[in-house]
Each structure stands twice: as C-alpha cells, then as structure tokens.
Amino acid sequence: MKRPTIVVHGGAGNWPSDKRGRALRGVRQAAENGFAILKQGGGALSAVEKAILSLEDNPIFNAGTGSTMNLAGRIENDASIMDGTGLESGSVALVNGIKNPIKLARLIMEKTDHVLIAGKTARILANAFALEKADLRTSERLSTWRREKRIFQNGRSRDFKRNSALLASGTLGQMVDTVGALALDSHGRTAAGASTGGMTLKLPGRIGDTAVIGAGLYADDRLGAATATGIGELAIRMVLSKSACDLMRSKTPQAASTQVIRSANSRVGRGLGIIALDRKGRYGAAHSTKHLCWATLDSKGGLARMNGQRVP
Ligand code: GLY
Fold it and tell me: Which ligand 1 atom is nearest residue 207's CA?
C-alpha cells in the first residue's frame, strides 16, 4: 500500500500581497477536498478532479469562475486530466460558459475515443452531458483585464513574445495563471489535472499548454505525475510535464522540477512553474516566476506556500 498524497497549485506569477492569504487558503482547501477522497480509499483520478473543482469554483484563481479574458474580452477555457495507470487522458480547449471545464475533460476521456476536443463540439458534449453552465466573469477579473489591455494598447507589449519579459519584470502585476492537481492513491495509481482561463489578452483561438498532454500535465504510474503553470507556449515547446516525469526515473520530484525549469530558462525563457509527485509520494515545486502558490497533503500533514524552489 502507498501513502496517499495530493499536491495542488493555484498558479505561477506575481501574486499581489493582498491576494496571497486568500490564494493560500484556496490551495489548502483544494488539497483537503482531494485528500478526503484518497483517505476514503478513492482513486487518484477522482481526487484530482475534486481538487480542481474546488480551484475552479474559487474566483481568486484563473480557472472556471474568475477566469481571465482574451483580447476580445471573452473567456476561453482549457482543461485536461490524465490517468497514470492506462495513460488515458482527456482535454478540452476554447470552451466558454461551462462552470467546470475539468468535468468536460474527464467526459472526453471516458465517453469519447478522443483526447482533445475544442470549440463547438466541446459545447455540444457539455450540453449532451448536462454540464452546468455559468457566466465565469467576475468584476475583479474584468477590471484587471481593462487595466492590462491599456498597458498593451500603450505599445508596451506589441507581440506575444514580450509577455515573458513583462511577466518577469512584474509589469503584469496581477498575472497569475492556471490551477493543477496531482494525486497518488493507496493502490499506487497516479493522476494529474489542470484547468485555466489561459493568458490575459491572448488572441482568440489561442490554446495553451493546459490542453496539451505532455506539456501542461502528465501522469504515469511507473514514474509519477507533473503539471505546469505559466506561459503555455514555453511549456509546450519544452514538453515540460513529460520531461519532468521522465527525469523522475532517476531523480527526486524536486530535482526533476528544478532541472526542467532551469532548462526552460536557458532554452526558451522564464515565466514557468511546475509541481511534481513521484510514485513514492515525494513531491517538488519549482518556478522561474516570482511566486508559485501551491499546497500538499498526506497522512503526515501538509503545507501551503507561495514559493517552491525559485530558479531565477
Ligand atoms: N499555462 C496556461 C496557459 O498558458 O494557457
């Protein structure tokens, strides 16, 4: 029997001081919700889904309610889930108005023959399975969007590449992103889940790492699980989560996390975070952003932090 463990994150970026308390309470609560499933003997997949639901329903995080908006002022959510036992996975991209995109990702995994579905068909599936609809915009996120749009319109970011520099310099002070969860259950099964509104002011139709298996998340019972946060384009180019899982063949989750962030810094740029969990229940967190809001819980206790291993 394994010792069940859950690790969650609420996003890498620059967390403003007035939001840190709420965010830490949010990740702690999500870890508790997911861990409650594991404690009752439930599976890693359900634990991950439960933790992500809690993060999606908490408007402090950029996922589900409170998601950030694209350049056109519209929310386009991405989410994915992966079962490390059979390497089954489901992803959804560009959905709007679905209260919990993680549920749709799981339905795509379990009820279709596909891995990734975007746009119109995703909406049809959500309707067919009677998923709850909601207006996910919050007034707080709307005022952040207006302020950030002014920054972009003032010519301080004229193309997407500069987001990295803006993020690193702290210009986009409120820019935090994505939620994720990893679990190991008592049978040694692993799972990973992730959900996001994506990057503020992204072009309509842009899909980030959260919908891309291997980049935004990966789970394999033989290795462990990992999920990424930050600038999706960088995570996709580094296949960040699968790379971290591969490193866990010989390294601890902390060493694997630090190494993939360090490689990303030198190859594609800064603006990423990752959490990882191995098959022994050991975990790690690393980021090149100012903060990474994350929490973990197992039968020995837990923690909630605004930083992992910072790799500047
Ligand atoms: N990491 C989330 C995104 O870039 O969309």
Answer: 5
Closest atom of ligand 1 relative to the 196 alpha carbon: 2
* Residue 108 covered by a domain: no
Q: Is 95 part of a structural domain of the chain?
A: no
Range of the domain at 180: 5-88+138-310
3-state class of 79 per DSSP? strand
- 28-47 residue pLDDT tens: 999 999 999 999 999 999 99
Identify residue 256 by its one-letter amino acid code.
A
Q: Whose CA is nearest to atom 5 of ligand 1?
A: 198
Centre of ligand 1 from the C-alpha of residue 240, in Å: 12
Q: What are phi and psi of 113, to 5 degrees?
A: -95, 10
Measuring from each residue's beta carbon to the nearest atom of ligand 1, which residues come in under 6 Å?
A: 177-178, 196, 198-199, 208-210, 229-232
Q: Kindly tell me if the per-residue pLDDT of 267 is higher than 60.
A: yes
Query: Which residues, in sequence order, are bridge partners of residue 116?
Result: 91
pLDDT over threshold 80, residue 73: yes
Q: Which of 178, 190, 210, 289 is catalytic?
A: 178
How many Å lie between the centroid of ligand 1 and the Cα of residue 107?
Answer: 21
Instruction: Give the number of C-alpha atoms closer than 13 A to the C-alpha of residue 20, restricted to the C-beta side.
Output: 13
CA 78 to ligand 1: nearest atom: 5
Total domains in the fold of the chain = 1
The residue to which tokens 């699980």 are assigned: 225
pTM across the whole model: 0.94
What CATH number has the domain bearing residue 46? 3.60.20.30
- Closest among 8, 7, 12 to 177, alpha carbons compared: 12
HEC secondary structure over 155-219: HHCCCCCHHHHHHHHCCCCCCEECEEEEEECCCCCEEEEEEECCCCCCCCCCCCHHHCECCCEEE
Q: Look at residue 133 and tell me if it is in a domain.
A: no
Establish whether 190 is a catalytic residue: no
| 116 occurs within a structural domain | no
Q: How far apart are CA 193 and CA 302, in angstroms?
A: 20
